[in-house]
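Recap for those who missed Tuesday's class. We walked through two folding examples back to back. For each one, the amino acid string is listed first and its predicted structure tokens come directly after. Nothing is annotated here on purpose, so try labeling regions yourself before you check the end of the notes.
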Amino acid sequence: MLAPRRAALVAALSAALALGVPGSSTAAGADSADAHSADVYVSPMGDDHAQGNARHPVKTLQRARDLARARSSHADGDLTVHLASGTYRTEKPLVLDARDSGRDGHRIIWQGTGSTVISGGRKIEGWRPVRGRPGLYSAPAPHGLADTRQLYVDGVRAQRARGEVPVGLTVTPTGYTTTADTLAHWRHPSDAEFVYSSGEELWNVERNGLGQWTEPRCRIAEAEGTTLTMVQPCWDNSNKRVEFPDIPGRSVSMVGPGHLTNDGKASYIENAYELLDQPGEWYLDRSARTVYYLPRKGEDLHRADVEAASAEKLVDGRGTAEAPVHDVAFRGLQFSYATWLTPSRPEGFSEIQAGYTITGPTGWATQGLCGFVEGGTCPFASWTKMPGNVSFTYGKRIEFSDSIFTHLGAAGLELGTGTADSRVSGSIFTDISGNGLEIGGVDGQTPASGVEVTNNHLYGLPREYHGSVGILNGHPAQHHRAQPARPSRLQRDIHGLGRLARQDRLARDAQPQP
């Protein structure tokens, strides 16, 4: 138990140093400054009934936002929300609107220390060996965790239980018939998800799915005997796309074929208790509210920090065309442990490319198809974009700098529809399920303009939705400025730690498993 106590002591010391120890010159100076400052102070050990000054910080981001909103009209310069070191766990996003903007040419700055983590995770504790399954452990799902797609053990992403489909498949209009009733006898076959990887013919890798740009995912709705029914509308949206009459096999979307290739074969299947057979794999039994994990060699679940991504948004900037969010900066922050649950629902993940999907019960038959089919809708490319775990719409002069986006389950940062004159600099994007950074929206929405992306480091992504990209430039009004990265000191330090962690993980994985 020494490690958790030491970690708590370090966190407390860091917070004390950031806030000022009572009786010290820093704290004394803060007292005199408080009378003249509108700044807000926050600490994981704070109290939301406190004044929010350096000696009496508040605890939550939401309370800090409300104080900053109230004080900004009295600030005679930039107003800074000082976030002490530590982890700020949040079940709901920090929602910002026009009221949370800087005023009179000044900014509201959310300032971290470099060790400030905004987390949507739920810590999982109480691990016990599973009787009859050597090496497998289980723990109760924490309160409020209804579902997740990501689990992390000491900051390393675990793999949802996966394997080959254990039966032969023959496509039907609603799913498949199988060569045996194996799946019907699984605990919860409707949890299981088929994944269709495109592969690459040039290298003789098996090619399934909807072409090289996509990797659709659809869940099983029901397994009865040898009949598999797939969830709707994911199945139709992935398997019924409209094709050019004179180009058989080529969809009007101009991305991939009109139906699943290779006779509808799934590349693999994920998310079933019966697939737990490799170290590092996990499964959440939602009905039993139990998490299962097969540890990697050297992992001790009684000491490990196991985090389930729970919140789907960490920061949500909700500007409008009439009332944008503006003049807001985020500096020295880490955004982690958020998920995205739409692919687990009947909508599934019917990908076009780069995380854009076809959605709705008739999406395959109508979206972007005006001029091609009766009832087709426009504009073209009005598909649904993968959301960002941190996102802004109609944001002006929004800044993210010296920050880290990691352990995320959707896109990392989304500067979406209507974003203008904003910048992202000196930041790190890694271990993200989908796109790293998204700029702009889709056709038919107000485009982004004047977004500057400079000196960032994007690596180790995408981790789950492999059709995604590092930077997605959606539907811009003009070219945005992007420059290659020149690592800052923060980036060098973090990248070095990440490299050591990866080397350690690879070394562990290379050792013989029990």
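Example two. Treat it independently of the first, because the proteins are unrelated.
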Amino acid sequence: MGRPFGQVYRARSLALGAVAVVAAIMVPGSAAADLRSDIQNEVREFLDIGRTAVPRAECGPGSMPEPGLQGDVPAADRDSGRSTQGYRCNMSMIGQFAGRGAGITSTSFEHCSYMGTFFPGNLLHQNGGVQVLDVSDPANPRPTATLNEPAMVAGTWESLKVNPQRKLLVGTGVPMLVGAGYLSVYDISDCAHPRLLNPGPGANLGMPLPITTHEGGFSPDGNTYWASGITPGFLSAVDLSDPTNPRVVWQGLTGITAHGFGVSPDGNRVYLSALSGVTVLDVSAVQRRDPNPQVQHIGRMFWSDGWATQHSIPVTYDGKPYIYTVDEGGSGGVKLIDVSDDADPRVVAKVKLEINLPQNLDSSIASSMGGSIFAYESHYCAADRPVNPTALACGWISSGIRVFDIRDPGAIREIAYFNPPARTGRNLDMVNSPHALASLLGIPAMTAPSAARAVLEGQFDPSQALSSRTGKLALGDVSTDWCLSPPEWRGNDLHVTCSDNGFMVLHVDESVYSPPADQQSVVGS
């Protein structure tokens, strides 16, 4: 049985170390040797860095492929304006609503999309709330409503999520990294015209909920909305059994940080993103609505390959449970983790682009300097179904939207990408874009920890990190876009927003992807 929060925690490596000492005294030498091997494997996994990229997509007719490293937008293309044309491979844009830019993450349901807001830039135009789009005609997305409740206007960060089963849309107010108190619940049965369900608690300025937020997401049944408040690892379970009256039924500290997460299909496990890793929580007591529920800590794993772990997507292959877990910071990319043993999750595959490899981080710095704090990091993904998924689509920040064939988890490969045209020089047109606002800083700070490690390993060539962009430390030039949002599957189309280009309908060519009959876009939270 897991341990309730409030007890003293130890990292798994320390716990195994203590067990090893006891085992060495009490059991035969052969058993102790096996345990030492287990400890060595744990340390090796913590220190391991993915050093290979997935195979490149083979670009078909009509493509405008990247000219160099997979995922890179070279300095020369940024300087010449070539990046304003974008790059594409087996994928094309068939519809767009740019608006004033999109926030960090957006969401969609049926033929509608909901564009996230970024505070305070979203207040600088007439409709400062969440923009509702009708995408019945994919070539001509059109706005139908604006959601202007306090949570929607305060900036939704990574909290705007849909539960398809109950046809609910929820977002929380996050004005600057962390928010508190405000949460709106909408009925989206008529997806183009959401109807507020909770005019009281959470939506009324005088009736805040006792939550902190940065990110959030649903349990699969839609009865619980989990709100995570990042530092210091505060997590809240909001009961939505009665969506007109949201109420907190559990909350607690989970560790140093609480970022995004994924929730198991039965709602009994939360795979919570930590600073650099995943914590497995037994939340079955909350799922059952036990009186005074206790959340149990089951297992935890950490890594040094990437950081600011973003979220997880629970899937199964041949009945065995896994999660695809995404690192927002550094060069960690996406990891496939075996969670069949809750107490001992194991990384079984890594998905990286060439620009993410340790030996190429000097080139990454050379091209991304001046483009603000993010560079070529992964951020949010969606699988095309939860059971035996066939494709994974990811927002890969300045590398655009990337699509991978994941039918065989041992042979993942890229099949398509679309890096949208840079909107260089149009910052004032994109006041709702975090990229446009953050471009006041030009340094790709999120890459720094991985780059520092490459330096220590002797894989970073300072001369390769120099380019025409080296001196661009401030007032960045928006020479790429930031694709932060999960691309949602709609047959061969993807509904997605990128910060500068707003909402886009992207079409994945039939020659590289055939949607399964039971396609069901799954983000995990």
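Answers for example two:
The helical segments are 12-26, 29-47, 75-80, 150-153, 284-288, 361-368, 434-438, 448-456.
The chain is about 15% helix and 30% strand.
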